Amino acid sequence: MRKVYLDYSATTPVKEEVVNAMIPYFTEAYGNPSSLYTAGLTAKDGVDKAREQVAALINAKPSEIFFTSCGTEADNWVLEGVADKLKSKGNHIITSKIEHHAILHTCSYLEEHGFKVTYLDVDSEGFVNPADLEAAITADTVLVSIMMVNNEIGTVEPIRELAQIAAKHGVLFHTDAVQGLGNIPIDVQELGVDFLSMSAHKIYGPKGTGALYIKQGRRLSNYMHGGAQEKKHRAGTENVAGIVGFGKAAELAAANLENHREHCTELRNYFWEKLKERVPDVSLNGPQDLAADRRHPGNLNVSFDYIEAESILLMLDMKYGISVSTGSACSSKSLEPSHVLTAAGVSIVKSNGTVRFTVGDFTTKEDIDYVVDAMSTIAAKLRELSPVAGMKGWE
Ligand SMILES: *Cc1c(COP(=O)(O)O)cnc(C)c1O
Description:
By secondary structure, the chain is an alpha/beta fold. It has helices at about 15-20, 25, 40-55, 70-85, 100-110, 130-135, 160-170, 190, 230, 240-280, 310-320, 340-345, 350, 365-385, and strands at about 5, 65-70, 90-95, 115-120, 140-145, 170-175, 195-200, 210-215, 280-285, 300-305, 320-325, 325, 355-360. About 40% of the residues lie in helices and about 15% in strands. Helix 1 packs antiparallel against helix 10 and helix 4 runs parallel beside helix 5 (about 100-110). The protein binds pyridoxal-5'-phosphate.
C-alpha cells in the first residue's frame, strides 16, 4: 500500500543530513561536554555550533539560546520560571484560549499555586485581538504568553504588535514558536519578544530536543536543578547528538525557508481547491485567506459535515495508508472537542468531523491527488451510513 504522511504539525521525518550530522556524536564524539579532555571538548564544540545554528534561524545571539528536552519543557520553564522569579511583583499571567496544552496545563498548575490567569478569546479565524490584550493587563501582570502559530488551525498571531503592547506596560512577553519555526521568518529583534520556545522534531530534527530563547538580561528561575550546564540555567548532561541534530535542522530550515514555504503553500492551496471540488459540504477552519503570512503554509483544517473524524482517520489509515490527525494529536485520544475549534466558535458536532492535514517538504502533488481521491470515496461512504447526512439543522 502507498504511504502518505500528512501530519507534519505532529512531527516530521528526520532529514538524512540531520541523521548524518548526529551519528558521530553517538559513536565517536560521545564524551561529556562538561569533561575537560579532548573527547569532552569535541562534544562541547558540537553543542556550541548547534547553538549558533539555532540562534541564526531566529536572529538571536548564541548566548541567548538554552537547550531543553523539548518544546514542552521550554514552555513549562518560562511560565514557572517567570512566575517564581516575579511572584513578589505580581501574580497575574495572560495567555490565549487556543494555546498548546504545554502552556494551558502549566497555567492551570500555576492557578493551583496562587496565580491568576486571563485566557484571551480569539475571533472566528483564531486571531487574538491586540486591544483585548491591552485591556487585560493589570498592575499585577508579570507575563504574557501568546503562541506564534496555532498548531491546529494554523493562525499566525500578530506577535510583534502584541509584544509591543506588553513592553509598553513593562510586562515580559513569551511566544511558543514551535509551529512557526522553519515555517515563517522569525526575527526576535524585530518581534521584540523576551522569551521564545522551539522544538527540533517539528523542523525535521530529532524528538526530545528543544530550546528556549532568553533575551539577554532577562531573568527567570531555573526549572531543572543539578549541574552547571547551560551556564547554570538548565541542569542535566546535554543531549549532544539531539542538539547537534537540532542545529543541523535549523541550518537547513534557514537555507530552505522560502522554498519550503512556497512548496507547502502551493500544495496546501491545490489540496483545498481539489477537495472542495470533489467533496461537498466541507468548510475550512482558521484563516480563510490562504496567504502564507496569516496562516501556517502547510496547514489545512477541514470540517466534513455529517461524519465523524475518527472514522475518516481510521479509514484513511487502514485502507489507504494515509496519516492525518483529528483536531490535534494531543486531543485525538480523547472525545473532548478541540479547545481551539471551540474557542473559534466551531460547533461541537462540526468539530467532531474535523480533520487536520499538514503537508511538508516530502509531500508531492501525486500524494495530494491520492488523498483527495481517498477522501472523496470515504466521505461518500460514511455519509451513506450517516442518519443526519443532508438534514437541515443537523448541527
Ligand atoms: C509540538 C508543540 C509543542 C510541544 O513540543 P514538544 O517538543 O513535542 O514537547 C508545543 N507547542 C506547540 C505549538 C506545538 O505544536
